[in-house]
Amino acid sequence: MSESVVEFSVEGHVGLITLNRPDARNAVNDEVAIAVEAAIDQIESDDDIWVSIITGNGPVFCAGADLKAVASGGARLGTKRGGFAGLVSRERTKPLIAACDGPALAGGTEIVLACELVVASTAARFGVPEVKRSLVAAAGGLFRLPQVLPRNVATELILTGDPISAERAAEFGMVNVLCEPGEALTHARTLADRIAVNAPLAVRESLAVMKGAIGEDDETAMARSNDAIRRLAATEDYAEGPKAFIEKRAPVWRGR
Known about the structure:
The protein is α/β, with parallel strands linked by helices.
């Protein structure tokens, strides 16, 4: 996807999706949504990619929907499987980290909320200003913001349309790593590497149980956990973990 509106690359076991419309503040149009979905397809189908990062080229992570495309009529800004940006409604099995080195607003915040982890520099800010334009944050912001921020803070953002700073978002736990401007991608890579040293199938099963158990009772959630360990017990990596520990060496994960 080089020289396109979305670039995709792989280094080791880490995939990198880069929104590449800096002149348009990385706003999402149909072409961006289709390209992001294609990158997610590649990540999900490639057994050697264990974790991924999404970031934006230029001073803005993503300004949300391309309003020029909307005004021209006929723009969908999403895909059937992935929803807005080809991402916010997409079912995925592998962790995705948002690396924000600038504002992520409207649909940009909703892209961030669809990710499992967030790294942000102090140049970033988050918000859903849709009410200022007689719109609603229809790509997940209205129900995901209260999941990562205190209810009253989320309500404030949703009803005023005013953004929150990366520092304040970090205080409330929405941001995993807060860093200096220009360093978000570097810190995101470090976080991705911390995940990628672990058994990839165990990471995926753990993520699936965690996400699937939200809102469930303990008995149902425990059944999910037991199913996950049974699936792992049938893999090569399940035997490799204890063997490497006994032999006092780093494990060699195969992802199978």
